[in-house]
Design goal:
Layout: E1 9-10, E2 25-26, H1 36-40, H2 45-55, H3 60-63, H4 65-73, E3 78-81, H5 91-96, H6 104-127, H7 134-159, H8 174-181, H9 187-204, H10 221-234, H11 238-250, E4 274-278, E5 286-287, H12 289-293, E6 305-308, H13 310-315, H14 321-326, E7 327-329, E8 332-333, E9 339-340, E10 348-350, E11 368-369, E12 373-377, H15 378-391, H16 395-409, H17 419-430, H18 436-442, H19 446-452, H20 469-474
Helix pairs in contact: 2-6, 2-7, 4-6, 6-7, 7-9, 7-10, 9-10, 10-11, 10-15, 11-15, 15-16, 15-17
Length: about 475
């Protein structure tokens, strides 16, 4: 899968996306050398289309600085890091919860996801017209629907209800653009689209074990089930979350890695714990994810942002192996033998984002690395199963799932659990993985936990981030701002 992402893809521009392209883009526009007729009569273009939807995940405005800022630096798991004078444009505001609608991070996240959604919609449109073997077409449609659901899941967690664009848009159709592209729907309607896409994807996609080695990393039935379980969890649909996470567990496709610290290393990529990862390669890497969080100073390995907080470090129980697998302490000797020197600017860095230049695939480009980004993991599913089980009154089931994680963490097993235990285990297992802020908001802990971290969470405002002001302007004021902004 890391190699197939290098294929060309279809990318048509619309009014509501940033005007961006790259040399790998395959533009089908009037007066171009490749006609739409030629395109539709080449079955190989079906895979190229779908690869383009995956490829978007590697871009800077998807999982890089802005995503790190609004999902991690905002939370009590992380601090801004870097230096006092380097704000990262708006990352100091993320850290202090003083952000507003003009901050670039929100616009990046919005534009990145909608660019991905637009690629997905175009892929689905052309897949229906391409002459292609039926089973392959069915699978590719499932892959695209999974990806579209993933992009909408990011959007609904960040902004609440958003415009729901689920078909190819004619850039000259102003009326449709005003009614669809610039018209926010409710949070509930957004989740309905996510659920519909994922239920369809589940029916179309194969199990992980049914893919050939060359296709490892593509969306699977388990990935669609896992994301749907998570979407149900966010909506407190406990029974559905319990059942869907159980489908993943009972599939026999996934298992915990023995060593927690290896989950985010190259050795753990696409392993037994992996349900879905963004696939990166030396020639088509993940833009600036590791660079943003790499140690800053001498020797310089990155920008030094998103450093684990003392709040997080001090929260772990004694002997928890997850602490050492999550937090890079300075000074220390790293897992690859590299010495983390006192000359680095910060006392801690995100170990999960560390890209070894001496023991992993490396091309000398810190801004374009081959490190995969974990999106869905089996441990997350165990936590979803535990939380939904507890909410349904199945405390024994919750205890058993958490104890699977406790065993790997080197900790004593629980004999009884309560909700605070379930949520603490989620924090320790998923630390620095871009879920903490959303978990605090959805569980109603945000105000109290932020106060303990010296931050002021404003109830009625901070449950959602602001709709980017650039988008409101582009819509002619049709997009409605979230409360408090």
């Amino acid at each position: 899968m890391k190699s197939i992402l290098k294929y060309n893809y279809l990318f048509l521009l619309t009014l509501f996306f940033s005007f961006s392209a790259c040399e790998d883009d395959l533009n089908i526009e009037p007066n171009t050398a490749l006609s739409e007729f030629d395109f539709l009569n080449n079955p190989e273009n079906a895979i190229n289309l779908v690869n383009g939807v995956y490829n978007k995940q590697l871009d800077y405005n998807m999982y890089s600085f802005s995503w790190i800022g609004i999902t991690s630096i905002t939370s009590d798991d992380a601090d801004k890091g870097s230096t006092t004078t380097d704000t990262g444009t708006d990352k100091h505001k993320m850290d202090n919860l003083t952000f507003d609608a003009t901050d670039i991070s929100f616009n990046d996240v919005w534009e990145g996801r909608y660019a991905g959604i637009y690629r997905a919609n175009n892929a689905l449109f052309y897949l229906e017209q391409l002459t292609i073997e039926a089973n392959l077409k069915n699978r590719l449609i499932g892959e695209v629907k999974f990806l579209r659901a993933l992009y909408y899941f990011d959007l609904v967690r960040c902004f609440g209800g958003v415009p729901l664009v689920t078909s190819k848009i004619d850039i000259n159709d102003t009326e449709t653009i005003n009614q669809v592209v610039f018209n926010r729907k409710s949070k509930e309607e957004t989740y309905t689209v996510i659920e519909t896409d994922l239920l369809d994807a589940i029916e179309r996609l194969p199990l992980k074990s049914q893919y050939s080695p060359n296709d490892l990393g593509r969306a699977t039935k388990g990935a669609a089930q896992a994301l749907l379980a998570k979407a149900y969890l966010y909506q407190t649909k406990w029974q559905l979350a319990y059942e869907m996470s159980g489908n993943v567990i009972n599939s026999g496709q996934y298992f915990l890695l023995a060593d927690y610290a290896k989950v985010w290393r190259e050795a753990g990529e696409n392993g037994s714990e992996s349900i879905y990862e963004v696939q990166a390669s030396l020639t088509n890497g993940l833009r600036d994810y590791t660079n943003v969080q790499g140690p800053r100073g001498t020797p310089d390995l990155g920008w030094g942002f998103n450093t684990p907080s003392l709040n997080l470090v001090n929260s772990y129980p004694a002997g928890d192996l997850r602490r050492a697998g999550t937090v890079m302490f300075v000074p220390s000797t790293l897992w690859d033998g590299f010495l983390a020197p006192i000359s680095w600017n910060n006392p801690r860095y995100n170990y999960k984002a560390y890209q070894s230049q001496i023991a992993e695939s490396w091309n000398g480009d810190k801004g374009n690395t081959a490190k995969n980004l974990r999106i869905l993991k089996y441990s997350d599913i165990l936590l979803i199963r535990a939380e939904s089980a507890f909410q349904l009154g199945f405390s024994g089931e919750a205890k058993d799932r958490l104890n699977e994680l406790r065993t790997r963490a080197g900790l004593p097993l629980y004999t009884n659990v309560d909700l605070s235990i379930v949520l603490n285990e989620r924090r320790w297992e998923m630390a620095m993985e871009h879920d903490r802020w959303f978990d605090l908001v959805r569980t109603g802990q945000a105000q109290s936990k932020m106060a303990l971290d010296g931050k002021t969470f404003i109830t009625g405002k901070h449950e959602f981030f602001p709709i980017p002001s650039d988008q409101i302007v582009a819509s002619g004021g049709r997009l409605i701002q979230n409360p408090g902004y």
